[in-house]
Amino acid sequence: MVYLKAVEAYGFKSFADKTKVEFDQGLTAIIGPNGSGKSNITDAIRWVLGEQSAKSLRGARMEDVIFSGTEKRQALNYAEVTLKLDNSEHIIDAADQLNITRRLYRSGESEYFINQTKSRLKDITELFLDTGLGKESFSMISQGKVDEILNAKPEERRHMIEEAAGVLKYKKRKKETASKLDETMLNLSRVSDIIFDLEARVEPLAIESAAAEEHQALTQEMTEADIQVTVTDIKALKSDYARLETEIKEFKDMILIKKERADKLEIALGHLSERQAALADNQERLNRERLELSTRLERQQGRLSVLYEKQDNQSQAEARQQKELQKLEAELKTLQQLAEEQADVTAALKEELTEVRQEERDALKKLSELDGDIAALIESARDQYYQVLSDQTAARNELKYIEKELAALERYFTENQADHQDYQDIVRDQAAFEDKLGKLETELTAKRTAYKECLADIQRKQTRYRELDEQLRQGHRYLDQLKSKQQSLTAMQSEYQGYYHGVRVVLREKLDGIHGAVAELIDIDSKYQTALDIALGGQLQSIVAEDEKSARAAIQFLKKRKGGRATFLPLSTIQPKVMAESIRLSMQQIDGYIGQLADLITAAPQYTSIVRNLTGLVAVAENLDAANTIARQTNYKFRIVTLDGDIVNPGGSMTGGSVNQPSVLLRQKEELEQVTAQLTTYQQQLSALEDEYNGLKTEITDADFEAQKLQRAGEDLAEEERTLKMQRDELQSRLYTLKAIHQQHDERLRQKNEYDQNYERLNASMAESDDQLKRIEQQIADYQLLQTDARSIEKEVSQALSDIRQRKVMLEERLKYQQDKQLTNDERLQQVKSALSDLEAVEEIEDIEEQIAALKSDIKQSEERLSAVTQQFEQDKAVAEEVTADMKEQQENYHELMRQLNNLENGIGEMKGQYSRIDVQLESLIYHLMEDYHMTFEAAESLYAEPADIDAARKRVKLTKLAIEELGPVNPHAIQQYKDVKARYDFLSEQQTDLLSAKATLETIMTEMDEEVTARFNDTFTQVQSNFAQVFSELFGGGNGEIKLNSADVLTAGLDIIVEPPGKKRQHLTLLSGGERALTAVALLFAILKVRTAPFVILDEVEAALDEANVLRFGRYVKSLSRDTQFIVITHRKGTMEAADRLYGVTMQNSGITQMVSVDLNELNHNEIKELTK
Prior knowledge:
elongated, Taq DNA Polymerase, Chain T, domain 4, 24 strands, 6-stranded mixed β-sheet, single chain, 9% strand, 6-stranded antiparallel β-sheet
């Protein structure tokens, strides 16, 4: 068996000196007067076994267990207790001799040792688990523990049975298993959440992946067929090319013969042609002048009509304006009068409200003064009362202290008069010892400082490391999002999403001479996008072509493909529209004018005519008011668009309202540029973070290694320091003892005189303070009567304050209404003034009449000049007809020859056209091979054979293209994304299966543990139940005792105790006497010990409440149990002492310091024992 051999204590509570208490097997009793420190032995054993509650050790803080010093002894810096156990039978899984040590420093640092090896509290707790020992074990019953057991809840009481059953380790393991199960469930929940999210992605990605794979397959099939068709077409075109070269040479020879004959006729016609040209030039000049005069005359007549109409309108406008002026002036006068009246009312209300607010402040001040003055008086009297009472208590305590000290002084005078030489030797040795310790402390402080700085540096770096790790994870996720968005936008742009079907068909085909859509070819600042989108609308999708021929070819292509419709803008025919410079300058003078829309657009120089044609006559304004002003200034001839998308159209009509975002065509291009720029910037930032992250990781590893070295060095120095301090404490303890003996005599004589004087003074002070307390009590009673009277006054003031506040609220509401009314009137007044200022004087009718007269004179001059020019034109026309007749005959001969020559040249031209078309087609096909397939014609010819059926191959190309178009846009990255997500999904699914399996395993383990606990608990409970009945009857000399479970659930049931003492009825524990309750608790303890023998049992005055007869029975029963179990009993009862094998006497000869005296009762006779225990 295991038994306690000894307890060694130093610095623990009252054990100021190193004390060793040795125990033998059997029954040991510890006796001594109250306050001598008997129970400190029990506390020391509980403390070593892991007690963490200072309250359970009868202290406020754990540091209270360290010896705090006395008048003669200096306080110690640490406490240390060691239990020495005999474990020769290896009941505990440890060595034969087991030393358990706990050490506590005043700094709060705590250390544990098992056989001088540094350990953890957990190691000690697990070492004694289910052995019957431990800080909460049933084998250690301290003072008050008996009532604690009996008053405990049934569920708490079952702990004793569990420990006896040896199931605590199972419950501990079950708790750990439950913790693992909770962790597994948490992980399972997280994995399930991730799987749920992935499931939502797997299916769409599977569809996208399948579409992408189908797209790849179709593209591969189309590529093969297209290359075969292209190679065949190139071969055919090269054959036609050689044939046309031969035919063109033959036609050129025939043309040379015809041209010699044509040259002779051409010379003759040249002279006639020069005469005719001179006449034609003059006629053209006269005709131009005649047309200019006619146009000028029409404009002048139109201007005359406009002036006549303006003359009529001006007369009507003057009449309307005069009526409006009279009406507004009358309303202005009325409003000004009303404003003056409202201002007077508002001022009166404000003045009244100010008075009410002052009344409210006065009432509040009066309330505060009523309550505050009396309360302050009462509070002051109470403070004075408590102060006097405190002084009286202090004086009483001081009297007791003086009485005690005077008695102690008498004892000191007769003790400790020697050891002076020892004192001198210790003083001499201490100086060298302190020097060594100081150096060691300096070195240790440096090491600890370096270690703390290193740890702080590691902490800072780890914090930054975690921040960087999180930033990198988030950064990579955001980078993936940007890349995905860029790919999506690129795909949308390359597929021309958002364009009309016809536009999309043309742009995808990349036809010759097609430059692109207007939206592709221009750029504009984002703040003008809405204006551009509204101004052009569908014209943004107009297609820019090189010339009319390219546009016609594209239209034919759409018809052939049935691909819809599109608008084309040939660069060769589209002319720019330009606003007159004078109009542009006048617009610039108007507030809110931004500029011409064409000037805000950026495009390549070759597209200037397109931009000017579409937007040259469109101006941009900040808002609709500015747009209306600009339109009026230009007589509603141009379109004015605002930044919000409102439009003033030519002619004066307006279009406006809410608009959505700008066209996707404009946003898409800008968004792609922004995303690309963000992607580049973010990649650079992420790279810098990764560099910092990797560097920090290396720094943390190096710093951690350095911290470990510093920690080991510090621990070595700390261990050396602790050893030196222990030695120093022992020296200092001895030094202070000797020094106190050396110096105390004179000091004590002086103190005795002071104490005598103070004793008389304090007695007089106590009598005086009693009188003062009575006077203060009477003052407080008088003040409380005054306070009662003040309460009634407070109610009256509070009612008046409530009336004032209601009146204030009413005035504030009236004032707000009046101010709102005045504000409305002021706004109308400003509107009338504005309307008056906006009316401008119309143009005078006399000015218009002067303009009409001047214009009539100009018209007359234009008519006279037109008549003269017409007459000259007719004369030149007759001469020209004569020359034309002479040329006709010569021209007919020349034309016949030229017709023949032209036929030959047309033949060559057609052949050259075929030649050029073949050349263009060849170039296009070869470019197609290189651009789309990165392959030369020679390479394609060598790799791909000609198809057996060229028409079938062409059809296959068309069908696969249609199939690809029907698929629509696909995500080219979906295949890899699907593989990645599917792999993660499969991996997490396996993890989920593993976690479910682990969950089932843990639940099975917990079930098995519950079964084991139930079996062990039932078996132990049955035995304890039987033993309790027997032990109860033996200790009480009869009666019945029973323990039972209070529920059917063995795992959670509590323990009820029902007893029937001899001669009494069956009753609850609370109805028993103190002695009966204590004996019942002891019976339960002994019943458990008979089932599970503890290595040793400590009983701390548990029989204090028993009568002498029961004490004798208690002593005999403990004696009988001590044959198998070691008992240590703290007692002051004679019956228990007589049963003991050994007595330890505890004394406190020096105030505050416990000393032990041992007596072996086996060596004394019966009479000596009786004499000793009296």
